[in-house]
Amino acid sequence: MQELHDAPLAPLTTFRLGGPATRLITATTDAEVIAAVREADGAGTPLLLIGGGSNLVIGDKGFEGTALRIATDGFRLDGTELELAAGEVWTDAVARTVEAGLAGVECLAGIPGSAGATPIQNVGAYGQEVSSTISEVIAYDRRTQETVTLSNAECAFSYRHSRFKADPERFVVLRVRFRLEDAQGLSGPVKYAETARALGVGPGDRVPLAAARETVLKLRAGKGMVLDPEDHDTWSAGSFFTNPILADEEFAAFRARVSERLGEGTEPPAYAAGEGHTKTSAAWLIDKAGFTKGYGTGPARISTKHTLALTNRGGATTEDLLALAREVVAGVRDAFGVTLVNEPVTVGVSL
Questions:
Q1: pLDDT band at 236, cuts 50/70/90?
Q2: Which site in 38, 76, 103, 256 is 20 to 30 Å from 349, CA atoms measured?
Q3: Dist. CA 209–CA 189, nearest whole Å
Q4: Do 270 and 167 share a structural domain?
């Protein structure tokens, strides 16, 4: 294990924001991860887990405690069964499954971060979610001090949520197992309308795996959602807010606000989200509330490519970012009565 003191954390995040940690440990094996967690827990030291850093907003004062960077590696494929170490780079792992001719995560190409973070957030995009293919998660249980294997059902997956996110102090993900599909070189059924249009097929059709992955990468790049050190639109955490899910009564009130503000007959995006609930688009809400692409005058602004991404234009502080986020949340609430919820994890700060 590598150990540093008063270590900068900003370079370990895609926002490139945040102050230093009292101590930074980099672990390259499961045993090192467990040892570092046990040591911190035994001493009562606050612990911050860092993977790819693509879903973290760290305060300018940094983190008083031990930051543990999980840098484990391991890609094991047995037929259609895939096991990834938590520290594996997610987008590289997706590329390797496509090369192997296996379907199930090809539309999750280009998502920054590590494999261990995917079950926590139930990462999803372009019609796929990892919950559809994860079979098991191997984790260290800080409560029982044992390594446990959790089935898909035990992970309690829902939209951008899981058992791990609900109880963030309990589990440390070590490995993730997936059950993929051998569809003779074809993708899973294309579910997302934008992807289907770009591929020139209908929803539910299958296409060559490589074509699905390449199309998703192009769509993401066009929205600034593929990491590029030279492009400040990618100095972000991707989607900063989750798409709101509203109960029927809430959605009816929301539609009324939309008609009042934007004119009779204007319909907001609406997607079924389980009995009695409807999901709408956070990006649409932000745009219609007046926060268009490129909004802002300071070093933290909305992406010039996508209204759902808040970005560091260089030289921003975490407080600059949070001020922009709070402005957007207040503006959307005032306009439509809907309160946006941040997707990234905040450390030492809050909206």
A1: very high
A2: 38
A3: 11
A4: no
26 and 140 in a common domain = no
Instruction: List the structure tokens of 246.
Output: 């509203």
Give the global pTM.
0.92
- Pair 34, 113 in one domain: no
176, 118 Cβ separation under 8 angstroms: yes
Residues 80 and 209 in one domain: yes
The pLDDT tens digits for 35-53 are 999 999 999 999 999 999 9
Please list the alpha-helical segments (H only) found in 109-208: 118-121, 163-166, 193-199
Pair 134, 158 in one domain: yes
What is d(CA 286, CA 310) in angstroms, rounded to the nearest whole number? 11
Given this model, what pLDDT does residue 94 score?
98
CA 31 remoteness from chain centre:
26
**244-258 as b/e, with b when 16 or more CB fall inside 10 Å?**
bbbeeeebeebbeeb
Domain CATH for 328:
3.90.78.10
Are the beta carbons of 109 and 95 closer than 8 angstroms?
yes
* Residues 136 and 8 placed together within one structural domain of the fold: no
| Domain contains 227 | no
Residue 76 annotated among the catalytic residues of the structure: no
Q: pLDDT tens, 113-164?
A: 999 999 999 999 999 999 999 999 999 999 999 999 999 999 999 999 999 9
For the chain, counts of helices (H) and of strands (E) = 9, 18
What's the total number of domains in the chain? 3
Kindly report, residue by residue over 249-258, the tens digit of the pLDDT.
999 999 999 9
Q: How far apart are CA 248 and CA 49, in angstroms?
A: 37
Residue 239 designated active-site: yes
Residue 52 located in a structural domain: yes
Q: Residues 142, 160, 175, 220: which is the catalytic one?
A: 160
Q: Which domain holds residue 215?
A: 75-222
Q: Which of 32, 239, 255, 303 is catalytic?
A: 239
Among 32, 88, 136, 343, the one annotated catalytic: 343
